[in-house]
Every structure is written in C-alpha cells, then in structure tokens.
Amino acid sequence: MAAIWHTPVFNWVHPDDRELVLTAVRDFLETGHPYVIEFRVVRDDGQIRWIAARGDIVRDDGRSSETLRGVAYDVTEKREAQDSIAKLNVWRGLLLVATADGSLDPFLQRVQP
Questions:
Q1: 3-state secondary structure of 59
Q2: How many CB atoms lie within 10 A of CB 101?
Q3: CA 4, CA 67: separation in Å to the nearest integer?
Q4: pLDDT digits over 19-35, tens only?
Q5: What CA–CA distance (Å, rounded) separates 100 from 49?
Q6: CA dist 1 to 6, 23, 24, 26, 91, Å?
Q7: Alpha helices of 1-113 — where are they, by DSSP H?
C-alpha cells in the first residue's frame, strides 16, 4: 500500500489528510465496499482545495471481471460556506448569552447609528 504515495495524484493530497485517504483506499480495496471521502489537496501554486470523492466496484454477472468507477470534485466553496455558517452560529450564541432575556434587541439598539 505504501506504493500508492508514489503516484502523481497522491502527491497532491494534503500531508495532514494522507492517512485518512490511505485508510479509505485500503478499506475500499480490501472490502470492495463503496467509499465516500472528503480531503484536502495542495495545488502546484500552493492553494489548498477540498475534494469530495466517491467510488465503487462494478462486477459483471459472472463476477469474473471488475470495473472500478469513481468521481472526485471540488467542494471548497461548500466547505468555506459551512465554516462561515459555523462561525456565525458561534457569534449568534455569544450574543444570546450576552443578553439577559435571550433577545438581540438590546444589542441591536446599541450598535445602530
């Protein structure tokens, strides 16, 4: 399995996500169960992008031959939107805790020009 890291495609996998990807590939090859995974890649220009990948094995009726099929697509914008929503929810929680009755009205009145 270590030879997988000598392929050009896996050179782009973010160092922190390599074990995750390696485990997913290993499990897929050993069990034949479909996989779904999200991981980061580092582009040649240094930009980090999020990739979602999924795949499975297609067998013919006699199970004598197999075809691997899969797809990978960029989900960076989705991940960034999820991160932004999570940060907004943290701020929302802080604002609700900061007001005695749980209302945002006192805060909004203080920040209006």
A1: strand
A2: 7
A3: 19
A4: 999 899 888 888 888 99
A5: 42
A6: 10, 10, 12, 7, 44
A7: 8-11, 18-31, 76-98, 105-111
The DSSP result for 90-113, as a single string, is HHHHHHHHHSTTS-SHHHHHHH--
32: left (phi over 0), alpha (psi -120 to 50) or beta: left
Helix (H, G, I), strand (E, B) or coil at 2: helix
Torsions phi, psi for 55 (to 5 deg):
-165, 170
HSE-CB of 63 using CA atoms within 13 angstroms: 1
- Residues facing residue 83 across a β-bridge: none
* Superfamily the domain 1-74 falls into: PAS domain (3.30.450.20)
**Pick from 32, 36, 4: nearest CA to 18:** 4
Model pTM above 0.85 = no
Domain spans in the chain, listed from the N-terminal domain onward = 1-74, 76-113
